[in-house]
Amino acid sequence: MPAIRMVDIEKSFGAIMANHGASLEVMPGEIHALVGENGAGKSTLMRILGGLMKPDTGRVEVNGRDVTGWSTNDAIASGIGIVHQHFMLVPTLSVAENLVLGCEPKTRGVVLDYKRAADDVRKLSNETGLVIEPERLVSDLSVGEAQRVEILKVLFRGARILVLDEPTAVLSPPEVRELWAVLRRLRDKGDTIVLITHRLDEVVELSDTITVMRAGQTVARIKTSETTPAEIARLMVGREVSLSAGKRVQPVARPSEVRPDQGLDVRNLGITGSHGGRVVDGVTFKVSPGEILGIAGVEGNGQTELIEALAGLRTVAGGEILIDGVEITRRSVAQRHDAGLSHIPEDRHRRGLILEYTIANNLILGVQRHFSKNGIIDRTRVMENALEEITSFDIRPPNPLLVARALSGGNQQKVVVAREMGRSFSVLLASQPTRGVDVGAIEFIHQQLLDARAQGKAILLVSAELNEVLALSDRIAVMYRGKFAVVMPSAEASEEVLGEYMIGTKKGNAA
Questions:
Q1: pLDDT number for residue 507
Q2: How many CB atoms lie within 10 A of CB 3?
Q3: Rounded to an integer, what distance in angstroms lies between the CA atom of residue 115 and that of residue 104?
Q4: Closest of 171, 196, 175 to residue 410, by C-alpha
Q5: Which of the pair, 457 or 238, is modelled with greater confidence?
């Protein structure tokens, strides 16, 4: 008997058909990968399973019982636990308080029994291998630790069927390996896991069975052992897809056409963290026009703070930042835009979008004044810009009046990339540019970065994907404890070599 059986699911939002004849069958005690392009209908299908939405037509069964149209409470009570792509934790509460929220153990029926809550969380944490201290504030956790809390939260409520939506999108390679060990342990214990991910290497490494969706429909159900990443990508997109950016030869600006002061120049940069210590300490580097400098490193070694300081989102404690010879160290974000800087932020929700704004309005954020006359926004020009960018970057659904919150995570990322690469710029900060997007969109974004490089743009790329850094970069720097441990030509780099610098077992000359 399948743990999950969904048949002929239809779900529309006005004129938009999210699911059309979609089906899913997951057996107990397996890791089942659900894959498809951004907007293929995967998340909608899982929201129906979790009781967040009701299907227009179709049938949903869990452990042989018809549960079509059930509520979220019904789903939780029946052992369904959904770990969403964007964390749903209260940052001002502790780990233990987040886990027991809504089902708090109490003393005398009124006061939270914090000791009991913490003991229960610690016991579950040790049993599952998702080790985390119950007393820690969520706001102090790394993204990998927050991911553990999200999984613990659904297990704490008795989940035996786990749905994980892009669980590794914000994790470093060591954290990914830890998560895989935990998921395998849960499977071996008899739990059922549905994994939504765009990382096809993860699908092949971890899953037992794969369901492929395209344009709201289920197009294939295959055994993982009988397929390849290239075949999965072809089923997802409907055409052959390059799974690596490769070393595509691109014409670059000739040295004679480039002034020595052009590009991004960072000198002895120092950044202080929230606890007073230096999170970036004396970093110096230059990115020339027609060059991509890639930065690799385990998350938490200063990459985020470096990019935020360059973008004007974080105060600099010392040093200088220059764009095309112009010193911008103390300038505002808007002034940096005017100087030629564009920024794809790593956190699209916090830094890249206003979720309640339409796609059209998000596509002009930061450059609104270029779409206005006498202080009044020219709506016609805004819509023309939106339609052009939606077409160029294949944003789905192609409706400029939809609010950003209604889009899948990958399509939200396309909006950010379209805005930042659609404007005039000479220097681009690309932080996790392909986080949470499908293989077809990754191929497209990679080509956009290479095209910008060919046009003489200076690009600083930060990515948790080592294969992405290796494929796109001309030079690669590794950040370790707030410094550049090494800077090397990409031709001399490999995942193994970079990995040694990332964890500090190998020292280098960052000159």
A1: 75
A2: 23
A3: 11
A4: 196
A5: 457
User: Using CA atoms, how far apart are residues 493 and 499, in angstroms rounded to an integer?
Assistant: 10
How do strand 31-36 and strand 192-196 relate by DSSP bridges?
Answer: parallel
Amino acid code (one letter) for 249: V
How would residue 221 be classed by pLDDT, with cut points 50, 70 and 90? very high
Answer whether the bond into residue 398 is a cis peptide, omega within 30°.
no
Q: pTM of the entire structure? A: 0.75
Rg of the chain, C-alpha, whole Å:
24
- Is the pLDDT reported for residue 150 higher than 60? yes
**Which one, of 446, 435, 437, 461, lies nearest residue 347 by Cα?**
435
- Cis peptide leading into 289, omega within 30 of 0? no
Q: Residue 378 has which token pair?
A: 């020219």
Dihedral sign (CA 398, 400, 403, 404): positive
The number of residues in the chain equals 511
Give dist(CA 294, CA 460) in Å, integer: 6
The pLDDT value recorded for residue 510 is 56
Q: Which of 59-63, 228-232, 296-300 has the lowest mean pLDDT?
A: 296-300
User: How many Å apart are CA 97 and CA 112, to the nearest integer?
Assistant: 9
Residue 58, sorted as left (phi over 0), alpha (psi -120 to 50) or beta, turns out to be: left
Q: Mind spelling out the 3-state secondary structure of 318-370?
A: EEEEEECCEECCCCCHHHHHHHCEEEECCCHHHHHCCCCCEHHHHCCCCCHHH
Q: What is the mean pLDDT of the chain?
A: 89
* Contact between residue 48 and residue 54 where contact means Cβ atoms under 8 Å apart: yes
Residue 109: what pLDDT?
A: 61
Q: Is the pLDDT of residue 275 over 70?
A: yes
The conformation of residue 158, written as its DSSP 8-state character, comes to T
Residue range 320-343: average pLDDT?
95
Amino acid at position 341, single letter: L
Q: 326-327 and 318-323: which strand pairing?
A: antiparallel
pLDDT mean over 257-285: 88
Q: Is the distance from CB of 236 to CB of 36 less than 8 angstroms?
A: yes
Closest by Cα among 177, 176, 210, 217 to 193: 210
Contact yes or no for 310/459 (Cβ under 8 A) = no
Collapse the DSSP code of 132 into the 3-class scheme (helix H, G, I; strand E, B; otherwise coil) and give the result. coil
